[in-house]
Each structure stands twice: as structure tokens, then as C-alpha cells.
Amino acid sequence: MQWHADRSLPLLAIARAQGAWLYAPDGRRYLDGISSWWTNLFGHSHPAIVQAVRDQLDTLDHVMLAGFTHEPVVALSERLSALTGGRLGHAFYASDGASATEIALKMSLHYWRNAGQADKNEFICFAGSYHGETVGALAVTDVALFRDAYAPMVRGAHVLPSPAAGGAAALSALDGHLALHHGRIAALIVEPRVQCAGGMAMHEAAWLRDARRLCDRYAVHLIADEIAVGCGRTGTFFACEQSLDADGGGWPDFICLSKGITGGTLPLSLVLSAPAVFDAFLDDTMARGFLHSHSYTGNPLACRAALATLELFDKLDVLQRNRVWAQHFTDALAPLATHPAARNFRQAGMIWALDIDAGHDDFSRRFYREALARELLLRPIGNTLYFMPPYVLDDAQTALLARGALQALDAALA
Ligand SMILES: Cc1ncc(COP(=O)(O)O)c(C=O)c1O
To answer: 16-32+318-413, superfamily in CATH?
Structure first.
């Protein structure tokens, strides 16, 4: 969220939302082409999720998770563990993505401390990475705009070349860096397949397999930040599944999830971790335990929304259906992909992006405005125009999104 005065873009009030549509009080409507910052996987107010939350509200609204537990959090943890084949069988909960990043970083550092290697307390991230904007998460976020003002509060990380800028060079830089510094590195944090907020920069899935091997060789944790790319967004439930070995091995040590896990209904985040990590904290001494509390940790309503979301994945065969729809949408975007101002059209599952040679630095704002005028919510990152639609668009909405974006592009460039 940015909080600044921009009188050319007044706030847009939304009164209600249903399916892919946001409705303003003045009767105008907007097709949510970016799933409200990548959260509303099944559109807004999906009846199955709404009903599940209502039922939960009648039963148990909230209870603190310290010393207590409840059925939705247990069921959700078991369900997520099963999605990793039990490889990451432990879940730690919070409410937002940045907190999940903080938890993964803290857990990794504390793991090494408990293992008698307290010097391993630094982190590697990639150029252009985005892992959230709380102070710890900012340390591994390489977006100058978000970091610069707060730099005096933020501890630096090791920022290495992104695999999106060249896989072989990034791997060799990582290898060289780990060889020299692994004694002080706790973890490498990565956005598998797509660095989203950094401009939808994509890399091949195989890259992460090689990075995993380097992490193993140098005894460094691998944190997969799937806050944006998880929940089917890149074609598999977890993006890192695409990088596993033939025998199903090669999972990261931690997976961070948030955003789409509740279908955009309620705030929830979590970190899945491997048994070896969990075991390192199992101790009667409080100081060896993992210390991180949030009041709303594992909120039952949010966990119930997440369970309903996961049920939709099964019931609607979402991953397979998305595969078919994605091909259809790629075809519909052909005129945009071949537009004279477009470069580097790319796709990973349900993410599409292209860079625009705009000839001015006001493209993002102009396009946003032109898209709204055509009933579309699309919000480029700088000169990168992208689509992260909900998984529920019908043919008319698909056509409107592709056609409206093309018209908005011409208007924004005019
Ligand atoms: C990859 C990634 N990590 C972390 C975050 C932070 O999540 P939140 O905005 O919920 O704090 C984001 C948000 O866009 C993200 O894309």
C-alpha cells in the first residue's frame, strides 16, 4: 500500500463485489483482472467460501492458539502437509504475507542457533525480489522505492543476480557466493518461477532444482516464498513442485503461503516447514522454542475459509481447468503480445506479463485510468502490464479483459 497524495487518481470506493466484478456506489463496475492484488482466486464472495465462514462464525469465532488448538487449524495443517506428500508437515500461522516471510527468516536463523551455529544468521535474496514490507521482510526485498526511506532501520542481505536475468550466470554467482560465505548464511529466499512485485520476472522451473542442490551442498536453508505464486497461480498448487526431482525429492525447507489461501476472503498466512526444522525447536527450554506470536494466529474463520478454498481446488478440478482456460486466454492476448509497443510477452500458468515501450514514465497511471474507463481493474507495475485474473472468468469476461486491455494500451500510448 502506498500512502501519498495523488490528486489525479482519487480513491475509488467499492460498495460490493461478486464473482469477478467489483461494484462502485455509483453503479459502475470493474472486472478484477488482478484478483485484488492476487488474492481472490475464485472471484469475490464465492458462495462455498462465504457459507463455510458463516458456519464457522456460528461455532467458534476465535481462540488464541497458544496452549489451545481447534479443528479448522488442525484440518488445514494436515491438508497442506498432504499437499507436500508430508515433506513439509508442520505449519506455523500468522495473518499477512510479510509476517510469513519474517517467520521463515527467524525460524531459519533460530534453527542454526539451536544447532550450535549462531554465526549462520544472514540471508541471500535476489535482485528485484519482493518479500514484504515489514522491517525484517524489507531486508530481503530489493525494490529501492520500498526500501530507501527506511534503510536506516533495515539490516542488509546478500543480494545476488536474479535467475530471471540469466539462469546460468545466477547459478554460478550463487555457487561462488555460497562457497565463500556459507558459514554465515542461514537461508536463501526465493520467489519460485516468478518475481511478481519486482515486475513479473520469470525463470525456468529447473533453475530452482539446481539452487536446491547448492543449498544442500553448503548447508543453507531454502525458503520458497509462494505468497504470490502458490495456490495454483503458476500451474501447480505450489510453484516449487515444478522443480522437484524425478523421485519427488528436492522440496524447500520452508514454504510461505498467504494471499490466495483463503480465496481472498480473510487475512491468513502460514509457513510450512520440514520435520528437521520442527525437531530443532522441540525442547523444554523456552528460549530454544520458536518465539513469534500474533494475536490472530490461526484464526478459525480464516482457516475455515482456507479449507473451503482447498475444497474448491478438488471439486472444480481447478488446475486442469486453468490449463485449458490459460491457453484460451493466451490466444485472446495475441494482438496485445504482438502490439508494436509490446516486448517480452511471457506467461507462467495463470500469470501473463509484457513490457511496454511507452516513451514516457507515466505509463502505469495512464493505463490504469484507461482500463478503469473500460470496466477493467488492471494496474501495471512500472511499464510492465500484467494479468493475474481470478480462476472463474467466463467467455464474455475473458474477451472483455483481452479486448479492453488492448484498447486501454492504445489510449494510454496516445
Ligand atoms: C512474494 C511476496 N511475498 C510477500 C508479500 C507480502 O505479502 P503481504 O502484502 O500480505 O504482506 C508479497 C505481496 O505482494 C509477495 O508478492
So the answer is: Aspartate Aminotransferase, domain 1 (3.90.1150.10)
